[in-house]
Amino acid sequence: MKNIVFENLEIFQDIDFGKFTTMKLSGRAKYFTVVKSVEDFSAAVHFLKKENIPFFILGGGSNTIVRSEFFPGIVIKNEILGFEQVFEDDKKIEFKVNSGVNWDEFVRFAVLKNLSGCEAMAMIPGTVGALPIQNVGAYGQEVVDILKGVEVFEIETEEIKTLSKEECQLSYRDSIFKRDKKDKYFVISINLELSKGRPEDPKYETLKNELKKKGIKEEDLTSKDVMEAVVEIRSRKLPDPEEIPSAGSFFKNVKITESIAEDFRKKYPGIPIFKVGNEYKIPTGWLIEQAGLKGKEFFGMRVHPGSALVLTNISAKSYDELAQARKMIQDRVFEKFGLKIEQEPLEI
Predict the structure, then answer these.
(1) Topology of domain 83-217+225-233, CATH
(2) pLDDT-derived band at 259, boundaries 50, 70, 90
């Protein structure tokens, strides 16, 4: 089918956009385009308004599940690249990072500059635009800890606005972009504030143990040490999405109250419960493993043997197969522990 050129933006028709996601489930879109600037995105907005069709923003495709055999709108792939330093004092440096930037590449840049605040979030796949939407985090660090503000394009008014961290209402894997402002804003860029010098002490035992195994003393700790330890842990536990299709961490960790945490510690000695701020969390991977599902394969999906938090696509072609596998896992965990586990990736 012939491509369309609209306001200098090339728009493709009837494209299988599932190939741009790391889970590799099939799904066609009526229209598909790649934007490399705010001007490109503005043209895409004019087009979707003219055609009166829905839209979906696609970043790295690592946190996206295709559920539609045919999406009757336009999928907009974000490739707005680049970042710049906007502020510096004797303790901190602030960067403005465009939303199409690969997150892991930025983390490695920051660590190379001996900056701290994002080193434990190394190897998280995807692009920067997802960070404030999901409040991405790992091993005790979250985007909310370093975020200063978010520059957005408001779809309805076509105005560019800057939201403060508080206005984004970030919480565990959640934000205003997934609730009140879902499909209302496009993230253009974010401002991140990183600290100079020594990182904070690791919060997670897994990370502490890895550093201890490497013979690194706390007083000598650098952001490079933390990043390298995280990379080693993740490389052992997680599949390479280039080789085995997956969406990274498929389930959110479960938040529980202090009283439930106490009950579980009594009932399941050795259970890994973490306190982060005022919240208690149980690693969902542990729950799935204890439910006897680690390494199991069903409906073309497999609970990854390295980390039960990850669901990999062995032979599934459709969303229905994934949905059946997800339900089986959720039901099994609920039967054993009475806890409901939630999916982390977004769906289209």
Answers:
(1) 3.30.465
(2) very high
